[in-house]
Amino acid sequence: MKTYKDEAIVLRSHKLGEADKIITLLTREHGKKRAVAKGLRRTRSKFGGRLEPCTHLQLELYRGRNLDIITGAEIIDPHVPLREDHHKYICAQSMLELMDKSIHDDQHVSNAFQALSVSLSAMEGEVNSYELMLAAFELKLCALVGYRPYLDCCISCGSEIAGTPAVLRLSEGGICCPACSGPASAAVSLEPEMLELVRRIFRTSMADVSRISLDNQAARKLMRLSFSFSEYHLDRPIKSHRILEDYRFGAAATPTSDRVHT
């Protein structure tokens, strides 16, 4: 059929011609799509403000030769609280950008839509640490697209790592014990508490992650860990990462213990 309906979350948009926009969407059934919203930039557009980033919609689309065309849009959840709080908005934008850069056009990744929808909804409520929420989302998304870090034991010798520091080797996708943590192309040091927190994140729903208490220093380290991991495996920078770091922590140099060792 030429027309179809699907749920979608708007990831981003950019101008097309004098009156139109191309909307990048994450849909429930059809994966990531780019579609044209005709006349969206006109004052009296039939879409109004429905196609803004973060908005959860029910869409009707027409299959075009190159890009599909949005013919109808009804809001399911506008996620207004995310727009009214600058801190929440920056974190939400990071989620959208990472999702956009993690999935190819027309690619469908199982549970990606649900992960984003649940995470945005959880961010609207009472959250103990926005940086923790973003870091958890990024690590879970990396796992969905095939880059889940191996955290069970040392990837070199197989020994159990509990109560001791470890090193997460980004190039090998897993942790090493102190005895095996020699030079690596890219690695992040993990204190025992941080390793246990990352393990806990993979066992915990986003709704429950929102209730985990974390001090600012630990949140900052976890956020930088997730940034390093996601950007390494995507092999591209995430612009909103830098915006969030500057907003939350200023442009100060990253502490030596937080750096990625190369």
State the CATH superfamily name of the largest domain: Recombination protein O, C-terminal domain
How confident overall, as mean pLDDT?
A: 90
Strand tally = 8
Figure out the total of helices: 8
Low-confidence stretches: 252-262
* Main pleated sheet: 5 strands, mixed, barrel
Taking Cα atoms only, what radius of gyration do you get, to the nearest Å?
Answer: 20 Å
Given helix and strand content, the structural type is alpha+beta
SSE order, as H and E?
A: EEEEEHHHHEEEHHHH
Using the 3D structure, state the CATH architecture of the largest domain. Up-down Bundle
**CATH class label of the largest domain:** Mainly Alpha
CA-CA gap between termini: 52 Å
Question: Considering DSSP H and I runs of 4 or more, what fraction of the residues is helical?
Answer: 25-40%
Shape: elongated
β-sheet strand percentage? 15-25%
Number of domains: 2
What oligomeric state do these chains adopt? single chain
According to CATH, what is the topology of the largest domain?
de novo design (two linked rop proteins)
- Biggest sheet, spatial arrangement of strands: 1-2-3-5-4
Q: Describe it for me?
A:
By secondary structure, the chain is α+β, with helices and mostly antiparallel strands. It folds into 2 domains: 3-78, OB fold (Dihydrolipoamide Acetyltransferase, E2P); 81-258, Recombination protein O, C-terminal domain (de novo design (two linked rop proteins), Up-down Bundle), CATH 1.20.1440.120. It contains 8 helices and 8 strands. The protein has helices spanning 80-84, 86-102, 112-124, 130-144, 192-203, 206-209, 216-234, 239-249, and strands at residues 3-16, 20-27, 31-37, 56-62, 68-77, 166-169, 174-176, 187-190. Strands 1-2-3-5-4 form a 5-stranded mixed beta barrel. Strand 4 (56-62) and strand 5 form a beta hairpin. It is elongated, with a radius of gyration of 20 Å.
